[in-house]
Amino acid sequence: MAEDSNSESARPAPISTDELARLQKRSDARGLTRLLGHLIAIGMCGWLYALTLERPTSTLLRLLAGLGLGFTLVTMFAAMHEAVHRTAFKSQRLNDGVAWFAGLLSFYNSTFYRPYHGWHHRYTQLPGKDPELEDRKPTSLVDYCMQMSGLPWWFGKLRTHGMLALGRTEHYPFLTEHAAPLVVRSVRAQLAVYGTAIAVSAALGYPYFAVYWLVPVALGQPLLRVILLAEHASCSEDDNPLSNTRTTYTLLPVRYLMWEMPYHAEHHRYPALPFFALRRAHTKLGPELVHVARHGYLAMHLKFLKSLGKELTRERAA
User: Are the C-beta atoms of residues 88 and 98 closer than 8 Å to each other?
Assistant: First the structure.
């Protein structure tokens, strides 16, 4: 169904109970294979990035290498996301351990993200309830550029981590009395790891932490912003999973590093499906979806900017 199709025509996907049960089967082997491939990609990009720093080369080549490393690091967010759902692996311990580690690499905290994301799924696109809507969508070209730069994300992450590390959990209604102390301890542990890495870098007399993590993540974050904005921007603000979420067709390397999350409408319709089952689900659910960006992220963003410009023109004319 086209991007602008009427949401009222959406119908539940014809996936039988038996087929859904088969699709929901999780696998440690497939999860570990994807994780290993992702870590190899980080290692290879890190090695190439290190070569550009050690040898005389152009600034552009260094930036591209840093961008490659950064993208493989920030997309560990997707590994964390999948493991937070406990669908990346069959083992719950493996899910929880990988989720925390992946959050460490991508500057997320999985212990906090689990209840936060749980509310997002429960109240997807419902104003006043979905916590993701607190991070408002761009309303102007300047605002769009600012958000895609990743700067608001950094400020938000630093603020949230700081508040949680101080035990300030009262601003997060999705944190229960049981979850709140666990989140505080988890965030403190995460910040301690970063602090240790900074201290080790200082002791060795070289800014390893900044050069090999902070700078690449800063370079890669805008690409992640582009991907994540596409998931719900310009979608319906209601409880219809066929119209409040977008699936985006993209290149295989992006799908691989994003753990198939570009099939985002399928994920929201069936959140218990493991990442490797989403493409199969799309073959059944795809015709029912209201928002499918068939020409990729660039075309989706160009369309979003065009609609943003029309909206601003209408407001000025009113």
Answer: yes
Q: How far apart are CA 44 and CA 79, in angstroms?
A: 18
Structure tokens given for 168: 């300030």
Both tokens of 292, joined, read: 């499918």
What residue segments make up the domains of the chain, in order of their start? 7-160+207-317
Q: What is the pLDDT of residues 156-180, one digit of tens each?
A: 999 999 999 999 999 999 999 999 9
* Structure tokens given for 15: 């996936």
How would you label 49-69 residue by residue, b for 16+ Cβ within 10 Å and e otherwise?
A: beebeeeeeeeeeeeebbbbb
The per-residue pLDDT for range 36-76, each reduced to its tens digit, is 999 999 999 999 999 999 999 899 999 999 999 999 999 99
The letter for the amino acid at 56 is P
What the block records as the tokens of 162 is: 């700081």
What pTM does this model have?
0.93
